[in-house]
Amino acid sequence: MTETAGATDYDVLVVGFGPTGAVAAGQLGRLGHRTLVIDRLTDVYDKPRAIALDHEIFRHFDNMGLTDAISPYIEPFTASEHFGVDGQLIRRIDMVAKPYPLGYTPSMVFSQPAVEAELRRHATGFSNVRAELGVELLDLLQTSDRVEARLKDSDGQHRSVTARYVLGCDGASSTVRQIAALALEDLIFDEPWLVVDLRVNESALARLPQCSAQFCNPARPVSFLIGPKNHRRWEIMLLPGEDARQMERPDNVWKLLAPWLTPHDGELWRAASYRFHALVAADWRNGRILIAGDAAHQQPPFIGQGMCQGLRDATNLVWKLDHVLKGVSSDSLLDSYTVERKQHVIELTGKIKAIGQSICERDPAAARQRDAKILAEGGGKPLLLTRQEIIPPLHAGFFAYHQMPARGTLFPQPRIASGRTARLLDEVTGTGWRVLIDGRSNDAASMLSLCAAHPDLSAAAVAPAGAGVPNVLEETEGVLANWFDRHGVVAAIVRPDHYVFGTARNDSGLGDLLHEIDVRLRDVPAERDKIPDLKMERTP
């Protein structure tokens, strides 16, 4: 079961030091793994790209100790209002209401250059993480126990390093993906857009929409996003015959912005043309080489999930690599990475495509039919959605064998009473494998006793404050009690990435899950016949 390996220079080589690579390197560093991260660029790209993140991603930032460092560059995401052919409001996409399920504002906007710089600083703060910039990957050679990477330094010198695993976070044109021969599958979306970032003068801000907006005008669809402070973004569809590079010119940009602003109203920070694609790698792993972020998938930006998806990749993979590198689990655990993340990307991309195709409708008659359909779905009023309901759970992979309530969903994070203040659950229980128990259950004591035989899992019982339950953590807003009630369960086993491995309705069910965890994580051959078909579930 335990992997043996000869001496290598590093445990993991991370190629690409953007947000996905920086988060992966920082998490590997915190877990004690010797990590080298390289990037062809010598500094953080100084123009904004991603603009949105959500509470799942911020939870990981908080777990990494980054809250204070990045909070100055983050603000709540306003609702996004969608306007139809005649300028009427047809749809509103907002965030879920309080009490927030993960303890943070569910949808946020941020300034990528500043946050990315903090992610890099965090990663390189670990003595076991080394970052080398201006370094290009030339080739990778796999053997049974390592990967040799051929590199070219900024001075043109060639050299080689070895690592037990390589993680390619090197963007849409990924060298790692090409070397590993990991093919891309086309999810059928290809539209040319111009992305414009402005720093708007204070005097002009009041003239702009006070919510983010999608102008679903068939003449030219436009997205408007409210970023942090005075940062405003327009995403403008390019029309047939328009030259993308010519449309980036400031004079043409200001013509497109004329319905809202003049050149005297702000500073043009960036204008860049893109083709919004929908692509996913057929497989995300070739032996000891894995890919993540834009190297593994690209999707349209219509609900701001591009960077979030890359960081989900990193947090999904890092805990599995940690188990394998430490000999807790066999290398086969890494097979679940593609199974889990690819299906999630495909499902979410499908939902984003549907929204994008609705926004991008160019035929006026079809656009009016779209408007009428959306309003009908809202009962004659603008349709109300939340960004959170658009994000799917994980359906297959390293989860309890049997289907059960909440399996593959994100576990909530209640606020726990602590003296006169409250702390978030992760701070109290830690972020490894956890068992959370409904303290109101008659089985709570026996379930805690069961967990005592599994020292690798932390366990805690939680009940609402004022419920009169002794010896439990007291939550202040009823978030977890409502979750247990809604799913009809009394215990949950939670993975290090906060996804629910499985749930139980009683102490017997929890005992079965604890046994399954032992078998599945440690991949004990002699125990396989005790649980039916322990092979990883595959996507259809």
Protein topology:
Layout lengths: L9 E6 L3 H12 L4 E5 L12 E3 H9 L3 H4 L3 E3 L3 E4 L5 E6 L12 E4 L1 H13 L4 E5 L2 E7 L4 E6 L5 E11 L6 H5 L4 E17 L1 H4 L6 E4 L6 E5 L4 E7 L6 H4 L2 H7 L9 E16 L3 E2 L2 E3 L5 E2 L7 H20 L9 H25 L4 H14 L5 E4 H4 L24 E4 L2 E4 H5 L4 E5 L5 H9 L5 E7 L8 E3 L3 H9 L3 E4 L5 E5 L2 H16 L18
Parallel strand pairs: 1-2, 1-11, 2-8, 5-13, 6-20, 11-18, 23-24, 24-25
Antiparallel strand pairs: 3-7, 4-7, 5-6, 9-10, 10-11, 12-15, 12-16, 13-14, 14-15, 16-19, 17-18, 21-22, 23-26, 26-27
Helix pairs in contact: 1-4, 1-9, 14-16
DSSP helix fraction = 25-40%
The fold-level CATH name of the domain at 10-76 and 105-185 and 279-354 is: FAD/NAD(P)-binding domain
Cross-sheet strand order for the largest sheet: 19-16-12-15-14-13-5-6-20
Structural class assignment: alpha/beta
- Rg from alpha-carbon coordinates: 24 Å
Q: Sheet with the most strands?
A: 9 strands, mixed
Number-wise, the strands total 27
Q: What proportion of the residues form beta strands (DSSP E)?
A: 25-35%
CATH class annotation of the domain at 10-76 and 105-185 and 279-354: Alpha Beta
Shape: globular
User: Can you name the CATH architecture of the domain at 10-76 and 105-185 and 279-354?
Assistant: 3-Layer(bba) Sandwich
Name the quaternary structure. single chain
Taking pLDDT < 50 over at least 5 consecutive residues as the criterion, the unreliable ranges are 1-5, 524-540
User: What's the rounded overall pLDDT mean?
Assistant: 93
Question: How many separate helices?
Answer: 16
| Spatial gap, N to C terminus | 28 Å
CATH homology group of the domain at 10-76 and 105-185 and 279-354: FAD/NAD(P)-binding domain
